[in-house]
Amino acid sequence: MPCLCLLDEFGQNLLRLLETNRARRAPRGHRPLRGPTSTAESRAGLPGGHAVGTDTWTGTLVVPSLEFDLTPPTITGAVDKIVRAPRGIKRMRVTYKLDAADAVDGSVPVSCKPKSGSRFKIGRTLVRCSATDRSANTRTASFMVIVKARR
Question: Cα 118 to chain center, whole Å?
Answer without folding.
Answer: 25
